[in-house]
Amino acid sequence: MTAPSPDAELISLIDRIGRRDEVALRLLYDRTAPRLMGLAMRVVRQREWAEDVLQESFMTVWRAAGDYRGTLSPPLAWLGLIVRSRSLDLLRRRTADRAQLTQEFDELMAETIESDAPSPADTADASEQAWALHQCLSRLEARQREVVSLAYLRELSHGELAEQLKLPLGTVKTWIRRGLEKLRLCMGRFA
Fold first, then answer.
1. pLDDT (tens digit, 9 = 90+) per residue, 47-57?
2. HSE-up (13 A, CA, CB side) for residue 60
3. Residue of higher predicted confidence among 49 and 1
4. Would the pLDDT of 98 be above 50?
5. Any alpha helices (H) in the chain, and if so which ranges?
6. How far is CA 87 from CA 47, 128, 165, 180, in A?
7. Which has the closest alpha carbon to 50: 7, 13, 105?
8. ∠ CA 130-134-135 to the nearest 5 degrees?
9. Through-space distance between the first and last CA atoms of the chain, rounded to whole angstroms
10. Could you tell me which residue, 101 or 132, shows the higher pLDDT?
11. In 51, 58, 75, 123, which residue has its Cα 20 to 30 A from 131's Cα atom?
12. CA-to-CA distance for 109 and 46, rounded, in angstroms?
């Protein structure tokens, strides 16, 4: 029997937090806080501010864990996006120069968070629309959401998807096309 992957363990903790398990929140904090604190420090550049960001981030995790889907985003990327959003919110409130800090943070984030998924920096570029995208993805049918997610988050080609999912290539292409159209219409409502 093999040990669960770090991502699987974090996903399990986030799922438990979604069911209001306070012990799981403490475990998630213990496993991720040092890395997330480092990310917050790189953005806000002051320990006191970074501590505030980390606290706000875990409050956000507590509120949003029920909406998290491990098939759409690796757990550290999701947590990193929350920390980044809270950090930028703090900097906006403090009227800091966001553009330079964001660029530095995105570069450091790409180097810091290791995962077999797409670069967190790529995901972070869309962080301001991440919540809207998550909401829109949840409105797709399960199989359609799976195909779109694998195509864009895991960067699989249509042919690779068809082979992996054991579906006809035409079906995969149709599901992606229709899914993207639904996403475009849904995202237009958030614009």
1. 999 999 999 99
2. 18
3. 49
4. no
5. 6-18, 22-44, 47-64, 75-93, 98-112, 120-124, 127-138, 142-153, 158-165, 169-190
6. 12, 12, 39, 30
7. 105
8. 120
9. 48
10. 132
11. 51
12. 17
**b/e map 123-136, b = 16+ CB within 10 Å:** bbeebeebebbbeb
Other CB atoms within a 10 A radius of the CB of residue 116 amount to 8
| pLDDT over 60 (residue 77) | yes
| Contact status, residue 115 vs residue 70, Cβ threshold 8 Å | no
Structure tokens at 40: 């917050």
pLDDT value of residue 96: 44
Sign of the Cα torsion 106, 107, 113, 116 reads: positive
**Digit-coded pLDDT (tens) for 147-187:** 777 777 777 788 887 888 788 888 888 888 888 888 888 88
The burial of 37, by beta-carbon neighbours within 10 Å (0-12 exposed, 13-18 middle, 19 or more buried), is given as: middle
Q: Tell me which residue of 190, 191, 89 sits closest to 139, measured CA to CA.
A: 190
